[in-house]
Amino acid sequence: MNGLVRVNLFGVCLIFLGGLLLSSSALARGASDRAAAEEIFKEANAAYRQNQFDNAIETYGKIISSGFESGNLYYNLGNSYFKKEEYGRALLNYERALLFIPGDSDLESSRDYVLSLLSLKPELFGNWLERAAGRLFAGVGINGLMILLTIYFAATILLLIFGLLRNEFKRPAQPFLAALGVLLIFSAIGLKEKIDRLERGGVVVSKRASVQFEPMQGATVYFELPEGSSVQVLETAKDWYKINRSDGKIGWIRQEDLGLIETKGQAGVHRPMEIRIL
Amino acid sequence: MRENGWCEGRILRLKPKMKRVVWGAAYIFLALNFVFCAWAKEVDFEATVDRNRVVLGESLQLNLTFNGTRSVPAMELPVMDGFQARYLGPSTRMSIVNGQMSSSVTHIYTFLPLKTGTFQIGPLHFEYNGDTYKSNPVSVEVVESSEKVSKESSDDGFAKDAPEAQELKERVFLVLRPEKDKIYLNETIRVIVRLFVNGLGIRDIQFPKIAHDGFSIGEFEQPRQYQQIMDGVSYDIIEFEVSAFGIKPGEFQLGPAEIECNLIVRRQESRRAPLSADHFFSSSVFDSFFGGYETYPLKLRSSDVSVTILPLPDESKPAGFTGAMGVFDFEASVSPVEVNVGDPLTLKAAIKGEGNFNTVNLPVLEMGPEFKVYEPQGKTEKNAKTFEQVIIPLRQGVSQIPALRFSYFNTRRGEYVTLTKGPFPIKVSGLNDQPQSQVVDGRQTLKVPAQKEELGRDIAYIKEGPGTLRKKGLWFYRTRIFWVFDAFALLTYLAFLFFERKRRRLKTDLRYARQLSAPRKARAGILRARSYLEKEKVVDFYDTLFETLQEYLGDKFHLSSQGLTISVVDEELKSRGVAGDVLTKLERIFKECDMVRYASSQLTKEDMGLTLRALEESIDYLQRQRI
Questions:
Q1: ipTM of the complex
Q2: pLDDT tens profile A257-266
């Protein structure tokens, strides 16, 4: 029986490791597409150096349209918009870059500089627990946090199994289990906070945006948001977003005034506007 | 018109009383049904319009009515030359006149004519549920507007030799015009897109989109609106202006430009008696008060324009030329002019004029090691770009900041121009000019006035490489593999928990362990007994049978297997409510075993088989009953 248990344990450990390796290797595909994207990136950088910022933005956007993204790409896009003095779009792309390379010092300093130009501070959303977890894992990206969560979970399971099979492990394992449990909870909350920022985060890209009580022309303005303000999108209606400010105020903003952190298509450039005659 | 002759009927449900009454009633029902069908109205398909004469730019209403039914859905109209159709909705009607019920459904479409002329709509064919319906044709005449204007020509290059408008596209159209059709690489030009509208209502006009391969296009400015008369026709014009510059040499097509907008069409008024109650309360009164309009989406497209982008000439290109294109003035100054070593002074430069300010950079200063120079801070305004650069002299005696040379390509004259400002005289006082403290103990102390260091601030430079490129939207939490892995880990733990608990119970709970092992041991014993049965080894057979039964009953009921007798078993099983026939079987098995073991017997193979079966059935019963 003991021998059988040992074999089972060994097999379980192998499966854990194999699962982790498989997960990380599954993402390393499409090498040739990446090579083409890297060439386009160099082209865009060349345009940036020649101060052709519109061209640079368009070229960086081609990489995103081809289905690739990275923290450096969004960072350079942010810089390009900054050079065009479109600070809202610059901040929007810096926020996107933060999800990939959160600990990058260039990114942090550029973002802080743009925020200081706009007299804004970094915003955090959610309850106090989510804000605390957000600050704790500020230097970890979404994927990094997901790996951490899986490691904590796997370690907890392994400790529990060892505790089942060896009574002598139970007592000394308890403080580790408690610590792992706390880490698991905090990293899960931190992951939720980051996912919320990715899927529901937005940045005001127009110079000044009015937030109304209702999603219709002529409704009463509740408050105004300056360029670069961070919000959370709660709902989408035709041409409007229902947003939540960091202090909890909720209202409706025109879709053209807000850039969403998660891009569905090309990093936007055009801003159509409606004009009526008659 | 229905072609297959069938019609709708009703199913009657009769109470079944007597067979003859039932059949008789059925015959009467069928006869009535046929009579009803003969009198039933046939379904017909009718097409009507609210008016047969309409002005270009106004809409008319087409009604497709199916009389005799309310269940026919709306049909998709075929593409009709000269009209644009849109479905508004159905209207159903049911009426009872002289005891006869009739119903109908009308599908209403609104038609927008696109050109003048006389047209025939239909006949329309529609298939539904195996039936084909055919409508009557309808004739419609579309005439032009009766607006009269005086003739006047235009000389800005937008004049068209347009005939009097007969089609909608003659009354609303888009024109794209760049400022020049031959430009230099990176030269900025104005591109104008004009929307012409004659006698129509247009709203919700979007900014134009221009195809611009080979060019870089900026953001459109706020449009301006004005009126202009061309060839006797008055147009409302909305003019969009944007700047563009060529990004590679060659011949390219700029455009076409496309604009999306909505055409406003007046909804027609219904005709009612002016003094009737219907007129007061009809929607048409309120419509004419509030504006009975509806909108049609329009997408307009201009033609494209050929533009040649010329490369810059290489001859006489100045050494400091960095790509600036346009017509510029250059101003520069330095302040303060008197500083101490280590104090900052600011070089301010302004480049004003017309051109591509993306290509304008501050000329690089040729400074020696006696200066520390920071990156210049640039700011772009309308038709100007200003720079500020902090320079710190590092030693005394420096007398000037070298001259600044700004080179650009003058797009008007087609030649390179270099503008020079400076050199800028300055006076730098050194540390020697400061009073020194007295030596007291041999150590020299210098009093250096506190210097406030002014640090520049800007964004960091771009990244040279793209970093780790990954597929868009591919986040780990969205892949199944992590969640499957976590679920598998949890299931593994639960499996371990289950098996560990079972193992512990087996170890600590003897009764449970015996009960669990009882059927397995009984099966093994029965197999051994069967093999003895095949070999007709009577004694071995009954010995095995006895041991198997004794061990099974002992394990099952947690009794001592050794010395277990039928009387003990009987008492135990009766108290658990075992069926009498099972008890009888068990007693018989015990007696047979005793008889063979302790006395000779004449039992045959058949008897042994019956006994073995009795044992199997008894064990099977005890297992199933969970006793």
A1: 0.77
A2: 999 999 764 4
Chain B environment of A26 (Cβ under 8 Å): 479, 481
* Chain A 219-248, residues with CB within 8 Å of chain B CB atoms: none
Which H or E run includes B112? strand B100-113
d(CA B321, CA B415): 12
Asked whether the beta carbons of B240 and B258 are under 8 A apart, the reply is no
In chain A, residues with a C-beta closer than 8 Å to the C-beta of B471 are 27, 29-30, 67-68
Which of the residue ranges B20-34, B523-537, B613-627 would you say has the lowest mean pLDDT?
B20-34
According to DSSP, the β-strands at B404-410 and B325-335 are parallel
Nearest CB to B206; choose among A15, A76, A272: A272
CB contact under 8 A, A54 and B486: no
- Residues on chain B touching A274 (C-beta within 8 angstroms): 204-206
The whole-angstrom separation of Cα A71 and Cα B466 is 8
Task: Please tell me which residue, A122 or B292, carries the higher pLDDT value.
Answer: A122
> What percent of chain A is modeled with pLDDT above 70?
83
Q: Going by C-beta distance under 8 Å and a sequence separation of 6 or more, which residues neighbour residue A49? A: none
Residue B38 in this model has a pLDDT that exceeds 60: no
Query: Are residues B461 and A106 in contact, defined by beta-carbon separation less than 8 angstroms?
Result: yes
A173 Cβ under 8 Å from any chain B Cβ: no
Using CA atoms, how far residue B119 sits from B122, B140, B167, B170, in Å, is: 10, 5, 14, 20
Task: Tell me if B267 sits within 8 A of B59, measured CB to CB.
Answer: yes
Q: B441 pLDDT exceeds 60?
A: no
Residue B620 to residue B487: CA distance in whole angstroms: 39
Nearest CA in chain A to B238: A277
Instruction: Find the CB nearest A68 among B216, B236, B472.
Output: B472
Identify which has the larger pLDDT, A51 or B566.
Answer: A51
The token pair at A69 is: 């993204």
Kindly report, residue by residue over B263-276, the tens digit of the pLDDT.
887 655 544 444 44
- pLDDT of B474-504, one tens digit each? 888 888 888 888 899 899 999 989 988 888 8
Computed over every residue of chain B, the mean pLDDT equals 79
pTM for the predicted model, two decimal places: 0.45
Contacts 24+ apart (CB under 8 A), B412-419: B412/B327, B414/B184, B415/B316, B416/B316, B416/B317, B416/B318, B416/B321, B418/B318, B418/B320, B419/B328, B419/B329, B419/B330
**Contact residues for B49 (Cβ-Cβ < 8 A; gap 6+):** B60, B61, B62, B63, B111, B121, B138, B140
User: CB neighbours (10 Å) of residue B350?
Assistant: 16
User: What are residue B222's DSSP bridge partners?
Assistant: none
Higher pLDDT, A28 or B565: B565
Interchain CB distance below 8 Å, B492 and A263: no
Residue B62 Cα distances to A104, B163, B268, B282, angstroms: 65, 31, 12, 20
Q: Contact B482/A275, CB-based, under 8 Å?
A: no
**Rounded-to-integer distance, Cα B216 and Cα B210, Å:** 11
- Most A CBs within 10 Å, among B195, B209, B382, B476, to test the A interface: B476
Give dist(CA A150, CA B484) in Å, integer. Answer: 11
CA B355, B357, B362, B364 torsion-angle sign: negative
| Cα dihedral sign, A103-A107-A113-A114 | negative
Backbone dihedral angles phi then psi of residue B304, each to the nearest 5 degrees: -90, 170
Q: Shortest Cα distance from A73 to chain B (angstroms)?
A: 6
DSSP characters over B292-347: -EEEEEEEEE---EEEEEEPPP-TT--TT----EEEEEEEEEEE-SEEETT--EEE
Q: Are B524 and B544 in contact (CB under 8 A)?
A: no
Amino acid sitting at position B574: K
Binned at pLDDT 50, 70 and 90, residue B149 comes out as very low
Tokens for B413, please give them: 């004259």
